[in-house]
Amino acid sequence: MSAEIVYALHDQLVPAEFIDVLVRSGLAARRPVDDPATIAGMLDGANVLVTARTAAGLLIGVSRAITDFSYCTYLSDLAVDSEFQRRGIGRELIRRTHEAAGVSTTLILLSAPQAQAYYPHIGMRRHDSCWLRDRRPPAS
Q1: pLDDT at 1 over 50
Q2: Domain 5-121 - what CATH class?
């Protein structure tokens, strides 16, 4: 029998807790975990934040999204503790995020290289026209 997972919409996260799950998920290599102020801004700016916790309260998954609630939803972070992966937690975080943002919105995400095979498995399709402008450090 698997442990109970408790999901919450708009859970209050502090930067240290978010950083911890980013590290445990492997996503920390692609996020500014050494910059708590930026992490705090990322949390403050999210329109939709869904968490997964163990019954004991340990944060094991986060979905963080920005949306207009009408047309598009950018799923900017999907992190699941590596010890809890392959249990449907990521799929459920995505489902709850899309539901909260509005299923009539298009859900968009940029995949970490090691996760590219995961998304087609859960019913998402690849889109080849993504363009990026690199992040610049804030002016000092």
Answers
A1: no
A2: alpha beta
